[in-house]
Design brief:
Helix content: 40-55%
CATH superfamily: Aldolase class I
Radius of gyration: 17 Å
Strand order of the largest sheet: 1-2-3-4-5-6-7-8
Number of strands: 8
Order of helices and strands: EHEHEHEHHEHHEHHEHEH
Number of domains: 1
Strand content: 15-25%
Structural class: alpha/beta
Bound molecules: 2-phosphoglycolic acid
Length: 253
Protein backbone atom coordinates (compact mmCIF):
# COMPACT_ATOMS: atom_id res chain seq x y z
CA UNK A 1 0.00 0.00 0.00
CA UNK A 2 1.31 3.44 -0.96
CA UNK A 3 1.11 6.24 1.58
CA UNK A 4 -1.54 8.64 0.24
CA UNK A 5 -0.25 12.05 -0.82
CA UNK A 6 -2.40 15.14 -0.36
CA UNK A 7 -0.96 18.39 -1.68
CA UNK A 8 -2.43 21.90 -1.45
CA UNK A 9 -1.64 24.14 -4.40
CA UNK A 10 -2.18 27.68 -3.18
CA UNK A 11 -1.45 29.17 -6.61
CA UNK A 12 -1.10 32.99 -6.52
CA UNK A 13 -3.06 33.42 -3.30
CA UNK A 14 -2.44 34.66 0.25
CA UNK A 15 -0.27 37.31 1.80
CA UNK A 16 2.49 36.00 4.03
CA UNK A 17 0.36 36.75 7.09
CA UNK A 18 -2.62 34.85 5.67
CA UNK A 19 -0.39 31.95 4.68
CA UNK A 20 1.10 31.78 8.17
CA UNK A 21 -2.39 31.72 9.66
CA UNK A 22 -3.35 28.90 7.35
CA UNK A 23 -0.35 26.81 8.37
CA UNK A 24 -0.98 27.39 12.08
CA UNK A 25 -4.64 26.39 11.76
CA UNK A 26 -3.79 23.36 9.68
CA UNK A 27 -1.18 22.20 12.20
CA UNK A 28 -3.89 22.09 14.86
CA UNK A 29 -6.49 20.42 12.68
CA UNK A 30 -4.31 17.58 11.48
CA UNK A 31 -2.80 16.64 14.81
CA UNK A 32 -2.56 12.88 15.03
CA UNK A 33 -2.69 12.26 11.28
CA UNK A 34 0.25 10.02 10.47
CA UNK A 35 -0.90 7.89 7.57
CA UNK A 36 -1.02 10.61 4.90
CA UNK A 37 1.83 12.62 3.42
CA UNK A 38 0.85 16.30 3.49
CA UNK A 39 2.27 19.02 1.25
CA UNK A 40 1.49 22.67 0.79
CA UNK A 41 2.68 24.66 -2.22
CA UNK A 42 2.51 28.36 -1.31
CA UNK A 43 3.97 31.17 -3.43
CA UNK A 44 7.80 31.27 -3.56
CA UNK A 45 7.90 34.33 -1.29
CA UNK A 46 6.34 32.35 1.57
CA UNK A 47 8.46 29.21 1.47
CA UNK A 48 11.20 30.26 3.85
CA UNK A 49 8.95 31.53 6.60
CA UNK A 50 6.38 28.76 6.29
CA UNK A 51 9.00 26.04 6.40
CA UNK A 52 9.87 27.30 9.89
CA UNK A 53 6.23 27.42 10.92
CA UNK A 54 5.68 23.89 9.65
CA UNK A 55 8.77 22.47 11.37
CA UNK A 56 8.04 19.50 13.65
CA UNK A 57 4.71 18.95 11.96
CA UNK A 58 3.68 16.56 9.17
CA UNK A 59 3.33 19.51 6.76
CA UNK A 60 6.02 19.64 4.09
CA UNK A 61 6.71 22.34 1.53
CA UNK A 62 6.45 22.19 -2.24
CA UNK A 63 7.14 24.86 -4.85
CA UNK A 64 4.73 25.60 -7.69
CA UNK A 65 7.46 25.82 -10.31
CA UNK A 66 11.24 25.65 -10.78
CA UNK A 67 13.86 26.36 -13.45
CA UNK A 68 16.25 23.90 -15.06
CA UNK A 69 19.54 25.69 -14.51
CA UNK A 70 21.68 25.83 -11.39
CA UNK A 71 22.17 29.60 -11.39
CA UNK A 72 22.96 32.53 -13.62
CA UNK A 73 21.39 35.18 -15.79
CA UNK A 74 17.80 33.93 -15.83
CA UNK A 75 15.85 36.89 -14.50
CA UNK A 76 12.79 35.92 -12.53
CA UNK A 77 13.59 32.23 -12.20
CA UNK A 78 14.22 30.05 -9.14
CA UNK A 79 16.60 27.08 -9.03
CA UNK A 80 16.22 23.74 -7.23
CA UNK A 81 19.11 24.68 -4.97
CA UNK A 82 17.31 27.84 -3.85
CA UNK A 83 14.25 25.79 -3.02
CA UNK A 84 16.21 23.23 -1.01
CA UNK A 85 17.99 26.05 0.77
CA UNK A 86 14.70 27.28 2.26
CA UNK A 87 13.47 23.87 3.34
CA UNK A 88 11.45 22.93 0.27
CA UNK A 89 11.88 19.38 -1.04
CA UNK A 90 9.00 18.96 -3.49
CA UNK A 91 8.02 20.75 -6.65
CA UNK A 92 4.92 20.79 -8.86
CA UNK A 93 5.93 20.67 -12.51
CA UNK A 94 3.83 21.30 -15.63
CA UNK A 95 0.61 22.44 -13.98
CA UNK A 96 -1.96 23.14 -16.70
CA UNK A 97 -2.02 26.84 -15.75
CA UNK A 98 1.72 26.99 -16.43
CA UNK A 99 1.17 25.26 -19.76
CA UNK A 100 -1.81 27.43 -20.67
CA UNK A 101 -0.71 30.91 -19.52
CA UNK A 102 3.06 30.66 -19.49
CA UNK A 103 3.62 28.57 -22.58
CA UNK A 104 5.22 25.59 -20.90
CA UNK A 105 5.54 22.71 -23.30
CA UNK A 106 6.13 18.98 -22.92
CA UNK A 107 9.76 19.76 -23.63
CA UNK A 108 10.20 22.36 -20.89
CA UNK A 109 8.27 20.16 -18.47
CA UNK A 110 10.72 17.37 -19.24
CA UNK A 111 13.74 19.65 -18.72
CA UNK A 112 12.40 20.85 -15.39
CA UNK A 113 11.68 17.31 -14.31
CA UNK A 114 15.10 15.94 -15.24
CA UNK A 115 16.93 18.80 -13.58
CA UNK A 116 14.82 18.65 -10.42
CA UNK A 117 15.54 14.94 -10.08
CA UNK A 118 19.24 15.53 -10.65
CA UNK A 119 19.22 18.17 -7.92
CA UNK A 120 17.36 15.96 -5.45
CA UNK A 121 13.90 17.51 -5.50
CA UNK A 122 10.84 15.31 -5.51
CA UNK A 123 8.65 16.26 -8.46
CA UNK A 124 4.91 16.05 -8.91
CA UNK A 125 4.32 16.14 -12.64
CA UNK A 126 0.91 17.26 -13.87
CA UNK A 127 -0.93 15.94 -16.90
CA UNK A 128 -4.51 16.28 -18.08
CA UNK A 129 -6.74 16.73 -21.09
CA UNK A 130 -8.90 19.70 -22.09
CA UNK A 131 -12.67 19.47 -22.40
CA UNK A 132 -12.39 19.41 -26.18
CA UNK A 133 -10.01 16.48 -26.03
CA UNK A 134 -12.25 14.60 -23.60
CA UNK A 135 -15.31 15.14 -25.75
CA UNK A 136 -13.42 13.93 -28.80
CA UNK A 137 -12.57 10.70 -26.94
CA UNK A 138 -8.89 11.64 -26.80
CA UNK A 139 -8.36 11.94 -23.04
CA UNK A 140 -6.24 8.82 -22.63
CA UNK A 141 -4.17 9.51 -25.74
CA UNK A 142 -3.41 13.03 -24.55
CA UNK A 143 -2.49 12.04 -21.02
CA UNK A 144 -0.29 9.17 -22.19
CA UNK A 145 1.51 11.42 -24.63
CA UNK A 146 2.10 14.17 -22.04
CA UNK A 147 3.40 11.70 -19.50
CA UNK A 148 5.66 9.86 -21.92
CA UNK A 149 7.27 13.12 -22.97
CA UNK A 150 7.53 14.43 -19.41
CA UNK A 151 9.28 11.29 -18.22
CA UNK A 152 11.51 10.72 -21.22
CA UNK A 153 15.19 10.35 -20.51
CA UNK A 154 14.71 9.44 -16.88
CA UNK A 155 17.15 6.86 -15.63
CA UNK A 156 15.65 4.71 -12.94
CA UNK A 157 18.06 4.61 -10.07
CA UNK A 158 18.69 8.34 -10.26
CA UNK A 159 15.02 8.78 -9.57
CA UNK A 160 14.10 8.43 -5.95
CA UNK A 161 10.58 9.65 -5.88
CA UNK A 162 8.12 11.05 -8.33
CA UNK A 163 4.37 11.51 -8.26
CA UNK A 164 2.00 12.10 -11.14
CA UNK A 165 -1.02 14.37 -10.82
CA UNK A 166 -3.89 13.74 -13.20
CA UNK A 167 -5.73 17.02 -13.51
CA UNK A 168 -8.35 17.24 -16.24
CA UNK A 169 -8.13 20.88 -17.32
CA UNK A 170 -11.94 21.22 -17.45
CA UNK A 171 -12.20 20.26 -13.78
CA UNK A 172 -9.72 22.78 -12.40
CA UNK A 173 -11.32 25.62 -10.48
CA UNK A 174 -14.66 24.95 -12.15
CA UNK A 175 -16.41 23.07 -9.36
CA UNK A 176 -16.86 20.29 -11.89
CA UNK A 177 -14.83 17.26 -10.83
CA UNK A 178 -14.27 14.11 -12.82
CA UNK A 179 -16.44 11.28 -11.55
CA UNK A 180 -14.44 8.81 -9.49
CA UNK A 181 -14.92 6.23 -12.26
CA UNK A 182 -13.70 8.56 -15.02
CA UNK A 183 -10.69 9.53 -12.93
CA UNK A 184 -9.97 5.88 -12.15
CA UNK A 185 -9.94 5.00 -15.85
CA UNK A 186 -7.20 7.56 -16.50
CA UNK A 187 -5.28 6.68 -13.34
CA UNK A 188 -5.15 3.03 -14.29
CA UNK A 189 -3.97 3.97 -17.82
CA UNK A 190 -1.21 6.09 -16.24
CA UNK A 191 -0.12 3.17 -14.08
CA UNK A 192 -0.07 0.86 -17.11
CA UNK A 193 2.16 3.32 -18.91
CA UNK A 194 4.49 3.51 -15.90
CA UNK A 195 4.79 -0.28 -15.94
CA UNK A 196 5.63 -0.15 -19.66
CA UNK A 197 8.29 2.50 -19.17
CA UNK A 198 9.94 1.45 -15.91
CA UNK A 199 10.67 -1.62 -13.84
CA UNK A 200 7.95 -3.01 -11.62
CA UNK A 201 9.46 -1.89 -8.36
CA UNK A 202 9.76 1.70 -9.49
CA UNK A 203 6.38 1.79 -11.25
CA UNK A 204 4.79 0.45 -8.08
CA UNK A 205 6.29 3.28 -6.05
CA UNK A 206 4.77 6.13 -8.09
CA UNK A 207 1.73 7.75 -6.58
CA UNK A 208 -0.85 8.96 -9.05
CA UNK A 209 -2.96 11.67 -7.46
CA UNK A 210 -6.11 13.35 -8.75
CA UNK A 211 -6.67 17.11 -9.01
CA UNK A 212 -9.58 19.23 -10.17
CA UNK A 213 -12.25 20.57 -7.80
CA UNK A 214 -11.39 18.16 -4.98
CA UNK A 215 -13.55 19.10 -1.99
CA UNK A 216 -14.41 17.61 1.38
CA UNK A 217 -17.56 16.09 -0.11
CA UNK A 218 -15.99 14.26 -3.05
CA UNK A 219 -12.64 13.18 -1.60
CA UNK A 220 -13.92 10.00 0.05
CA UNK A 221 -15.39 8.62 -3.17
CA UNK A 222 -12.26 9.50 -5.16
CA UNK A 223 -9.99 7.82 -2.63
CA UNK A 224 -12.06 4.65 -2.69
CA UNK A 225 -10.84 4.01 -6.25
CA UNK A 226 -7.99 1.49 -6.41
CA UNK A 227 -5.58 3.65 -8.44
CA UNK A 228 -6.17 7.07 -6.87
CA UNK A 229 -3.33 7.58 -4.41
CA UNK A 230 -4.09 11.07 -3.20
CA UNK A 231 -5.12 14.54 -4.33
CA UNK A 232 -3.75 17.83 -5.60
CA UNK A 233 -6.11 20.43 -4.18
CA UNK A 234 -6.41 24.04 -5.29
CA UNK A 235 -9.25 26.19 -3.96
CA UNK A 236 -10.17 23.96 -1.05
CA UNK A 237 -6.58 24.00 0.25
CA UNK A 238 -7.00 27.69 1.10
CA UNK A 239 -9.51 26.86 3.83
CA UNK A 240 -7.84 25.07 6.69
CA UNK A 241 -10.95 23.17 7.77
CA UNK A 242 -11.73 21.96 4.24
CA UNK A 243 -8.15 20.95 3.55
CA UNK A 244 -7.95 19.12 6.88
CA UNK A 245 -11.14 17.21 6.09
CA UNK A 246 -9.71 16.26 2.70
CA UNK A 247 -6.52 15.03 4.40
CA UNK A 248 -8.64 13.03 6.84
CA UNK A 249 -10.59 11.33 4.03
CA UNK A 250 -12.63 8.34 5.03
CA UNK A 251 -12.54 5.50 2.59
CA UNK A 252 -11.06 2.10 2.15
CA UNK A 253 -9.70 0.64 -1.04
P1 LIG B 1 -8.90 23.26 -7.87
O1 LIG B 1 -7.40 23.29 -8.45
O2 LIG B 1 -8.91 22.26 -6.73
O3 LIG B 1 -9.18 24.65 -7.42
O4 LIG B 1 -9.79 22.80 -8.99
C1 LIG B 1 -6.64 22.12 -8.56
C2 LIG B 1 -5.29 22.43 -9.14
O5 LIG B 1 -5.21 23.25 -10.06
O6 LIG B 1 -4.27 21.87 -8.71
Amino acid sequence: MLTPLVAGNWKMNTTLREGAGLVMSLRELIKGVDSVEILIAPPFTHLHHLSHLAADSPIKLAAQNVYWEKKGAFTGEISPEMLKDVGCRYVIIGHSERRQYFHETDETVNRKLLFSIKEGLKPIVCVGETLEEREAGKALTKVRSQLKKALSGIVVGTLKEVAVAYEPVWAIGTGRNASPEDAEEVHSAIKELLFDMFDTEFANSVRVIYGGSVKPDNMDALMAQPNIDGALVGGASLKAADFARIIKFQSQK
